[in-house]
Write a structure and sequence with these properties.
2 domains, 620 residues, 1% strand, two-stranded antiparallel sheet, mainly alpha, single chain
């Protein structure tokens, strides 16, 4: 028997230089996010009071998104928190599970290293063209973060291949063999496409991160087709410097300030004081609080993780069974996806408008999503009320003084949606500036008014955590756009239009088929990569059937919201399993009633287009 080599210290501790590196990375991403907030706010002040502008502020903010994205991706890899959707390894025996982890990390490292080398080609091309960003700084200097970021991710994936030197060296060896096969195997790239895809699929089953699945697929198709793989990091760069995209990290940051401060506690107390005396009041409280937090944090799982510990005891003490409480919290965790300033509608408007086939403004997506979002909330509340206890409601009498005290205690946080909406739709700020104002307001409220966050102790930690999530998401989005570009070049959307229109004649039958497909997509892909990959394929087909683009967008997002509850791999099922320490099958069974309720809501949204189109039509 060969003894294991000594265990290596974790990244969290380790030698002083490693600790210093972690602190430097955290500080860099905090600084980048702080500048992203400051520049748009300074632009508003300069424009309003001095009739001037901050030189190249929007350009700098856009490129700071690239820096935050790659730094955050490196942090996610450092902390072993890159998103992976495969859960099959949970059923593996320990030794097989360990081997699968080594293999998946080795393949992911190869993908990251290939993206690193492809990014170097992008940098050299920019250097050759001599393009200038601003203030005489060449664009290639900023683009170097692509090379450094993907390189850091590759190294950290190898490090996390195992918790011993033996396993890590095995991951390095597997990665070296795969790279050797790519470089020296005496076969044409086209002949290696199928074996490479088989390896990628096997690694995906073993827990390959989502960005590696999409990036690996894009690399294989471009390479085996004889096309330059530098297209992938180039598309990543193009996406991250999109003028509207900075609103996503800025609203995410605002959501993290709220989630990490005391907002959850104050909102629960407020809604409990107002609705606690009504039958099903705790269910109404749960739905309203979850929808509020999801609208700011996006479909990131923060809602279930942050609020589960507060709301579960309230539900159970009010007469709800553990099963009904678990199902309600799991289902409510994605409510709010259609409300401003949630991130998926913003991303949908960006992706849907980028191909030129249609044009949707962010404001139109939020206007279209308001009534459908309220419908889903109302149906969830109705189910929760039907399971409520009349006796518990009688024991909790409404007290106007308590309710007013709770409102007064949460007054500054109650204004946050007002600040976001007025800035977003008031006409005096761009979407990015509105997001910056919201993030700044949330920071001031939680740090200086309520003082739940300590300036030097908590704020940098919260900002680094937000940057980690942003980086993990943008890493997926960037490589997903490269994969989508290949699909478009291969004329997949055109062929899809031809096949669907020849096979399905009825618009309503197409919508039913669309719901089924999107339900599968929603339970197999995260919402962000699904938007980037699927939306460009969907829009031409929907246009052929005359479906309103806003209606299509809301159908798409509502189905993905439902997908979070759909077995076997709905994301909310695993987050609730983790948060409440329950087996996934038990969570899935508890969530079935909510799945049915929301499925009916999605069908109503699909077949009653006026729910989506009426408000945008009135506000034109």
């Amino acid at each position: 028997m060969n003894p294991e080599l000594p265990t290596v210290p974790s990244v969290a501790g380790g030698p002083p230089w490693l600790v210093a590196l972690r602190r430097a990375e955290d500080l860099l991403i905090v600084l980048a996010l702080a500048i992203m907030v400051a520049l748009p706010c300074a632009e508003i002040v300069a424009r309003k009071f001095f009739q001037a502008t901050v030189p190249a502020s929007s350009t700098w903010v856009q490129h700071l998104v690239l820096i935050v994205g790659m730094l955050g991706g490196a942090l996610a890899a450092r902390d072993n928190r890159l998103l992976s959707l495969s859960t099959l390894t949970t059923f593996f025996p320990p030794r097989a599970k360990s081997a699968a982890h080594v293999f998946a990390n080795a393949v992911a490292a190869v993908v990251s290293l290939c993206l690193c080398l492809a990014s170097l080609d992008v940098v050299l091309e920019s250097q050759r063209r001599g393009r200038i960003l601003a203030l005489g700084i060449p664009i290639w200097v900023i683009q170097l973060i692509l090379v450094l970021g993907f390189g850091a991710v590759a190294l950290r994936l190898l490090w996390h291949g195992g918790n011993t030197w033996r396993k890590r060296l095995l991951a390095v060896a597997i990665a070296a063999v795969l790279l050797g096969m790519i470089r020296w195997l005496p076969l044409e790239p086209a002949q290696l496409r199928l074996p490479a895809l088989v390896i990628l699929i096997a690694a995906a089953i073993c827990g390959l991160p989502v960005f590696s699945i999409l990036g690996g697929a894009a690399l294989i198709f471009f390479w085996s087709g004889g096309d330059p793989v530098s297209t992938i990091p180039n598309k990543h760069y193009t996406l991250t410097v999109n003028p509207t995209l900075p609103s996503i990290p800025l609203f995410t940051l605002a959501g993290y300030f709220l989630a990490e401060g005391g907002a959850a506690r104050r909102f629960v107390a407020l809604f409990q004081a107002v609705f606690g005396g009504i039958r099903g009041g705790p269910a109404i409280v749960t739905v309203m609080v979850c929808a509020f937090f999801t609208s700011f944090t996006g479909a990131s799982g923060v809602t279930i993780l942050a609020l589960g510990g507060l709301l579960m005891p309230i539900l159970m003490s009010s007469g709800y069974s553990e099963r009904n409480s678990l199902g309600l919290l799991t289902g409510a965790g994605s409510l709010g996806l259609l409300f401003p300033p949630c991130l998926p509608p913003i991303l949908y408007s960006i992706v849907a408008s980028s191909g030129g086939a249609t044009s949707i403004r962010m404001e139109e997506m939020f206007q279209g999503g308001l009534l459908p979002g309220l419908l889903l909330m109302g149906m969830t509340m109705a189910w929760g009320v039907s399971r409520g206890s009349k006796q518990a409601a009688r024991e909790h009498r409404f007290d106007a003084r308590v309710a007013w005290g709770a409102i007064w205690a949460a007054k500054w946080e109650l204004l946050i949606p007002v600040v976001a909406l007025v800035a977003l739709f008031g006409g005096f700020a761009t979407p990015v500036e509105a997001a910056a104002i919201t993030a700044l307001y949330a920071f001031v409220v939680e740090t200086f008014i309520y003082r739940d966050l300590k300036l030097l102790r908590d704020v940098p930690r919260v900002m680094a955590e937000a940057g980690l999530l942003i980086g993990g998401v943008l890493l997926i989005l960037g490589v997903a756009l490269g994969f989508t570009h290949f699909l478009i070049v291969a004329q997949v959307p055109d062929k899809g239009v031809e096949w669907v229109t020849a096979t399905i004649e009825s618009k309503w039958l197409f919508l039913l088929a669309l719901n089924l497909v999107l339900l599968i997509v929603g339970c197999l892909m995260d919402v962000y990569s699904a938007i980037v990959v699927v939306v460009p394929l969907l829009i031409p087909v929907a246009n052929a059937f005359g479906i309103d683009p806003i209606h299509l967008g809301i159908i798409f997002l509502a189905n993905l919201e439902l997908g979070y509850l759909t077995p076997p791999v709905g994301m909310n099922l695993f987050l609730a399993s983790y948060r409440f320490n329950k087996p996934v099958p038990e969570v899935a069974r508890a969530s079935l009633p909510m799945l049915g309720v929301l499925a009916v809501g999605v069908l109503l949204i699909t077949y009653l287009p006026w729910l989506t189109t009426w408000l945008p039509g009135q506000l034109k």
